[in-house]
Design a protein that fits this description.
Structural class: alpha/beta
Length: 339
């Protein structure tokens, strides 16, 4: 008599099916984007060599529609997008290999909303690394992630940069948590509980390699008990990440407590193969000069970041970014003329 199948057995098979389907979708996407790249390259080179005029693309679209009945995605507009895809990344040997890892729909968002080559490269790299959904990629554009990253670089202690060289590419100077729906005036407990309630969204905002360890994580030092607001682990850095929440502006004395928690984590919680813990003070606001002074002599790998409960004014940030690039261009020109 055979044993009746168990639900767990069915679940294992279902996971195999789901994984196989995902691999098939990824393989199809890779082939599709590779095809679009090759078509874009062919169109671009022929137009550049004056073999074709722009009007030939219309003829090509009509020819494909006539000779390949039922073929979709090869309209005049899409053919020009394929050309744009190739021309946007063809000269960048570091980014071009990542292009095939990203779905075509994501490329359309990046090409249409990315205004500068460096902005498009920024989002290609992060989309490939974070594996954002289409919805999350659109959210990051709305949150002006590129503008915020350029205009407000990460504020980290020298030790954080030494012990974790990749820290600047993993952490942000500000985190947008508009999905919490918090009012302008809120308590630390409200922020804490809201982050736990929307933990999946917060993990996406933090980054793909962050893993949640615990809330109000207990630390015992001597005869006293302490509780760390949030504890995470970052797989890429191979280190614990302690996050302390502050609903007001950053104050220098906050670093003392964070350093204490990091010491306790390294002595009593960190495993032998892990690297030193990193501390993050997540505050409602901060004065960059105060932060710089406070971090310059910090003896722990720590950083200061803001959280924003609403999407930023993207138009204002774009204007500031334009001014930033203009000033840099003028400075470079002045330096060249003085040589």
């Amino acid at each position: 008599m055979t044993n009746a199948p168990q639900t767990a057995d069915f679940a294992d098979i279902a996971r195999l099916v789901a994984a196989s389907r995902q691999q098939a979708v990824q393989a199809v996407n890779t082939l599709l984007v590779d095809l679009y790249w090759q078509i874009g390259e062919s169109i671009s080179r022929r137009i550049a060599a004056a073999e074709w005029g722009d009007g030939v693309v219309d003829e090509l679209a009509r020819y494909l529609a006539r000779t390949q009945p039922g073929l979709r995605g090869f309209t005049r507009a899409n053919l020009f997008r394929m050309r744009q895809l190739y021309e946007a990344y063809a000269g960048n040997e570091l980014v071009a290999p990542l292009v095939r890892q990203i779905p075509w729909t994501h490329h359309l968002i990046i090409l249409s909303q990315g205004k500068r080559p460096e902005e498009r490269e920024f989002y290609v790299r992060l989309t490939a690394r974070e594996r954002w959904s289409k919805r999350e990629l659109e959210r990051q554009f709305k949150a002006a992630l590129f503008e915020r990253t350029v205009l407000h670089p990460l504020k980290a202690s020298p030790l954080a940069m030494q012990t974790h060289p990749d820290v600047a590419s993993i952490f942000k100077d500000s985190y947008v948590v508009e999905f919490l729906g918090l009012p302008a005036s809120h308590a630390e407990a409200d922020l804490h509980q809201s982050l736990l309630a929307r933990l999946k969204d917060f993990l996406i905002e933090l980054g793909r390699d962050f893993c949640f360890v615990g809330s109000e994580y207990p630390l015992q030092v001597g005869g006293r008990d302490f509780a760390l607001d949030l504890l995470f682990f970052h797989r890429g850095l191979n280190s614990l990440v302690a996050i302390e929440l502050k609903v007001g502006r950053f104050e220098p004395e906050y670093l003392g407590k964070l350093n204490f928690y990091l010491e306790a984590l390294d002595r009593d919680v960190k495993k032998p193969h892990e690297r030193p813990a990193i501390g993050v003070l997540l505050c409602a606001s901060k004065d960059d000069e105060v932060v710089e002074y406070a971090l310059s002599r910090s003896t722990s790998p720590s950083l200061i970041a803001e959280y924003q409960t609403q999407l930023p004014d993207k138009a204002l940030l774009r204007a500031k970014l334009h001014e930033f690039y203009l000033q840099n261009t003028q400075s470079d020109a002045a330096a060249d003329s003085s040589e």
